[in-house]
Write a structure and sequence with these properties.
With 451 residues, the protein is α/β, with parallel strands linked by helices. It is built from 15 helices and 16 strands. The mean pLDDT is 96.
Length: 451
């Protein structure tokens, strides 16, 4: 296919000037003068500034066209600027953009809550809306404490649940935690996630034993444990898929201890892993589910959902909500999320993600089979990881080096894993055969070039 012959969204990469081009570099200099230096990584090779996106394509400020294999942090599962989102935004923006979510609720807030409870894994579900995944995790942690009376939490090494103070407490990586360690809740214990140790990848029984011991012993500060938070598949941790039987056994252990399971499905939920909830695919039985990212198809919205029995641990509002926010139930975001949930069924999103993911995984596995630095290519649906090693050790920073090389070839990808040893792919559904072929070839070329 000739560059530019396909509609924008289905195109192959078109690099007119080596990225980042002069326009992106100029914008980076402007950004450096106004944004905290902590936020955006600015170098001679990174980043490019986005100006337009559709489907699997992004166009930068210099006119380069990229193939986006990140789905913008997994948000664009339906594709960038999807018709689902644009139609809902257009209709709702002409009617009501902002409301008073916990005082005089927008109708769209109610309609979204009904839609969420309809797809939830309980017949009597209740939900709390918010704007970000971190907020959904905060809601879930508060709910679990109210429902169990136990503030302690058990989380997993490699897990990522957000960076607000409550969610940071259950996010294990020292890079995020260290600057704020004196303010972080000390009642969180961490146990290994099976597969994270290259020397003992399949020892799920040892991980379960540590879970059992931790539940009995309590949190490091002595608090009893009332919640275990886990991603059905660790996303930012490196697309780590638990071995068969692990999540079912974990569910049994946690429920025997009278604690609750919080499934962080912010990345894995709503079809990305081949099912409405990835928990169902890996055998996890959650008590609370957190959703976000693709729920808003580009607009900020998230939710924590549980059964009525658990959610009723919250007191009834007496006119002043215990947990709320200004943009709770934002009508514009709610309108989009309602359509996303409808598309989940009408567009058969989960099945398409499973099919597209299998196609991409198979192509990558075949192309990289002889690469000495590739330990494993793994995935569930459209959450895929390529893990790099040096001998029997993780190759620190390999994902970032490949991501930089791939950007020059017109691919947008991101590193993952505790040591940046994984390249993570979370593309949208509907990539063409030509786009998949191009992505696989350019990724393999980038790996060969820098590793």
């Amino acid at each position: 296919m000739e560059p530019g012959s396909a509609p924008f969204g289905s195109r192959l990469p078109e690099i007119h000037v080596p990225p980042p081009g002069p326009a992106s570099r100029g914008l980076a200099e402007r950004l450096r003068r106004v944004e905290s230096r902590n936020i955006t990584h600015l170098t001679d090779a990174w980043p490019v500034f986005w100006e337009e996106a559709a489907g699997a394509n992004v166009r930068d400020a210099d006119g380069n066209v990229y193939l986006d294999l990140t789905g913008a942090f997994g948000v664009a599962l339906l594709g960038h600027s999807s018709l689902v989102a644009r139609s809902a935004i257009e209709a709702q923006s002409a009617q009501l953009i902002h409301g008073m979510g916990d005082v005089h609720p927008p109708t769209k807030k109610l309609e979204l809550l009904e839609a969420l409870c309809e797809v939830a894994p309980w017949t009597d579900a209740r939900a709390v809306l918010s704007s970000t995944g971190s907020e959904a995790v905060e809601t879930a942690l508060k709910t679990a404490q109210l429902a169990t009376g136990k503030p302690g939490v058990l989380a997993f090494v490699g897990g990522y649940h957000g960076l607000t103070m409550g969610s940071l407490a259950v996010t294990e990586r020292a890079h995020f935690r260290r600057p704020f360690s004196r303010r972080t809740y000390e009642g969180v214990g961490f146990v290994p996630f099976p597969g994270a140790d290259l020397s003992d990848r399949e020892d799920a029984s040892a991980c379960l034993e540590q879970v059992s011991e931790s539940l009995a012993r309590g949190a490091p500060n002595g608090d009893p444990i009332g919640a275990v938070i886990v991603e059905p598949v660790q996303a930012r941790g490196g697309a780590r898929i638990p071995p068969p039987g692990f999540m079912a056994a974990l569910s049994d252990l946690v429920h025997e201890s009278k604690a609750l399971i919080i499934a962080d499905e912010i990345m894995t939920g709503l079809g990305r892993c081949g099912a409405t909830f990835a928990s169902s695919r890996v055998g996890l039985t959650p008590d609370i589910v957190c959703l976000g990212k693709s729920l808003g198809a580009g607009l900020p919205i998230s939710a924590a959902i549980a059964s009525k029995q658990i959610m009723d641990a919250w007191p009834e509002s007496d006119g002043e909500a215990v947990h709320t926010s200004t943009f709770l139930g934002h009508p514009l975001a709610c309108a989009v999320a309602i359509e996303v949930l409808g598309a989940l069924r009408s567009q058969d999103v989960a099945s398409r993600a499973e099919s597209d993911g299998s196609r991409l995984l198979q192509a990558l596995s075949g192309r990289l089979a002889e690469a000495h630095c590739v330990r494993e290519v793994r995935g569930l649906g459209l959450l895929i990881g390529i893990e790099f090693v040096e001998g029997d050790r993780p190759m620190r920073g390999a994902g970032a080096r490949v991501a930089t090389a791939a950007l020059a070839k017109g691919l947008i990808v991101l590193p993952a894993g505790d040591q940046g040893e994984v390249l993570e792919l979370t593309p949208p559904i509907g990539m063409t055969d030509e786009q998949v072929e191009c992505a696989v070839g350019q990724l393999a070329s980038s790996i060969e070039e820098v590793l």
